[in-house]
Sequence to fold (285 residues):
Amino acid sequence: MSQPRPESQPAQQQTPPGVLGEMTPRPDHGEESYRGAGKLAGKVAVITGGDSGIGRAVAIAFAREGADVLISYLNEHDDAKDTAKYVEEAGRRCVLVPGDLTDRMHAHSIIPKAVEAFGRVDVLVNNAAFQMSHDSLDEISDDEWDHTLATNLTAMFILCKDAVPHMRPGASIINSSSVNSDMPSPQLAPYAMTKAGIANFTASLAQMLAEKGIRANSVAPGPVWTPLIPATMPPEKVESFGEQVPMGRAAQPAELAPVYVLLASDEASYISGARIAVTGGKPIL
Fold:
């Protein structure tokens, strides 16, 4: 397991959705540190938002655990190709699917592409997300509200619905929620609302799919150093990002990956309907 980087992040700003190459310091996705043990040998995984951040760390870990991977991402082509390089260096196949998940036709195309390439889906990780920081309700446009729901909630619903017919008993759905799901930041109201919805939907899904032998869980990260942060927060908030949790720092994406590996693996055969907190000591309700 990688050790967290000691340096804090300076004030910085990017244009959404953000790219790795402009981040200081560069996040640790486990590129040099993650060691697999065959926990996902022979499995097929679909990961949205897999070009960077948590999704990239999960893609690297899944590949080193033996899974083939389809990565859905928006338009960060260089970051996605770099992630694919690590997947392929692990000896696994990687399919890259760029496009906007808010386009329902595109969202509906992802699972068929995975089935065409790999024949089935064993693990679905709904990780792609959008957020913006605002100090007042007046700053949130109707279009931004709709975009946040379409990215964070509707796309997740579409992929889950499309994936289930191609899943066998033992398959796993993992949805990325947030510590904001039950302790919402007032500056992230639309995002926090969708993350609560993800946690609630996943709990329903676990009960609905149990008879099919398909598990559904959510992960609730705290502050994680990803391109979404400098791309969606004011520079001064970026500089202090993560200081609010008991550990006093943001997580590196590599520190999230082991939880996703566990939930994707057969070792989690009796874990369904759970919400796993990875929050640096900040409890969730």
